[in-house]
Amino acid sequence: MAHHIWINTPFTTNASESAHATINTTGRNLSLVAAIQRSANFDFHQWSIAITYEKTNVQDSYRNKSSLQRTINSAKRKQKQSMKQSIKPSTTKPKKKLAITKNLALMNLL
């Protein structure tokens, strides 16, 4: 290995582990041979997805991941969250009053 490549290579496996985070979906605590076979299948699948995307420009998922769609989804989440917050205080008060009323009714029965 050339010296400049050796120096520029990170001394931890963090980059490789984060790049292959999805590999754990194929199995964990495997024997060495099984791990090598499964990782070879996994790598082949990942390469075939990449080659298909290059040739056809069709992603492996039909989900729209564009920046415009992410912005729209973010706005929808914020609107939904604000709706929940505006509804939440009005629904909690009657429940408390109802609980107090039930407690008073039980006290009168005893």
- Continuous helix count: 4
Task: Count up the domains.
Answer: 2
- Residue share in β-strands: under 5%
Mean pLDDT: 77
Biggest beta sheet summary: none
Order of helices and strands: HHHH
Helix content: over 70%
Principal-axes geometry comes out as elongated
Low-confidence stretches: none
- Radius of gyration, rounded? 28 Å
Distance between the termini: 87 Å
Number of strands: 0
Structural class: mainly alpha
Description:
- It is a single chain.
- The chain has 4 helices and no strands.
- The radius of gyration is 28 Å and the shape is elongated.
- 73% of the residues lie in helices and 0% in strands.
- It has 2 domains: 62 residues, no CATH class; 45 residues.
- The chain has 110 residues and is an all-alpha fold.
Quick overview of this protein structure:
The protein is mainly alpha-helical and about 110 residues long. Helices cover about 75% and strands about 0% of the residues. The longest helix is centred in the last third of the chain and has 43 residues, at about 65-110.
List keywords for this structure.
single chain, 110 residues, mainly alpha, 2 domains, 4 helices, elongated
List the helices and strands and how they pair.
Layout: H1 3-8, H2 14-19, H3 32-56, H4 67-109
